[in-house]
Amino acid sequence: MKGQILALACCAGAILAALSGCAQTDRESESFEGKTVVTLGYLPITHALALFQLKETLAAEDSPIAVKLQKFGNWSDLTDALNAGRIDGASVLIQLAMSAKSKGVDLKVVALGHKDGNVVVASNKIEKVEDLKGKKIAIPSTQSSHFILVQEALKRGNLTPSDVKIVQLAPTEMPFSLASGAVDAYCVAEPFGAQTAARGLGRVLFDSKELWDDSICCGLVLNQRAIDALGTERVDALAEKYLASGESLDLERSRELAKRYLGQSPEVLETSLKWIRFGDLSIDPEAYRDLSDRVRDYGINAEPPSYEDFVYVVER
User: Fold this and answer.
1) How far, in Å, CA of 182 to CA of 177, rounded?
2) What are the tens digits of pLDDT across the range 71-130?
3) What whole-number distance in Å separates Cα of residue 119 and Cα of residue 207?
4) How many structural domains are present in the chain?
5) How are beta strands 89-93 and 23-25 bridged, if at all?
6) Cis peptide before 44 (omega within 30 of 0)
7) Would residue 224 count as lying in a domain?
8) For a FRET experiment, which of 10, 188, 255, 311 has its CA 20 to 30 Å from that of 103?
9) Is the pTM of this model over 0.85?
10) For residues 48 and 56, what is the distance between their CA atoms, to the nearest angstrom?
């Protein structure tokens, strides 16, 4: 066990090193001459695979539009850059974008980042959700689908948030925190759940499909300034290519992109990719209403933006 914890600590250290600094642009030497460049922020997580595919698809097709990726180390720095207009858009927790929109930041969500793809992971000492009473559970943000999923999980054991202690941690800290006993469970973006499950350092209590099927987590969000600068025709083309990129992500291609952009071990990636889907990333009005109801019901956003105000609909 000590050896496994040490390995996790080393892995976390490597990830933190890769994420160090506020942000960094991938492939600085890449030429975008003569192209309309869209700068999109991301965290190096499984949930951003459709964004990586979009970038590579546009480059392979020699499209007049190019995606320039900008990597961030945490959601706070990414959302600050997005909301301030320092980047054109991002693959981001959709609840964070909804909150910013409710506060007057002019953002539009173009498509989903993925469907499902989250798990609630617990210490091996926790055999069922009822065992979480009085325990500490980590989430990345109270403005997240992970906060919703944890509360849905607690319901299964007739528990409420007041029966546990919910804390916020950076995703990279969660596997080691669980292995060291600092927390008893967590729910976070992948591949950080798989890091624990694949190494046998904890158990999966719930796959997100069990708690909220087709759950909405991340989205491709653009700020209005970028939309105005690009124009409807280019934004529509970008959205269509993004949706097609998601549809093209079969298991083999997902493995290739995850290995290239995330730097995780094959066993972790194999585990993580079992839980996520990238087909049909368009935002259905009914699914958005369900999301809005959940963010209201769970105290995340009392007045979420309407579908008409927040969702960018491609003109066909």
Assistant:
1) 5
2) 998 899 999 999 999 999 999 999 999 999 999 999 999 999 999 999 999 999 999 999
3) 5
4) 2
5) unpaired
6) no
7) yes
8) 188
9) yes
10) 13
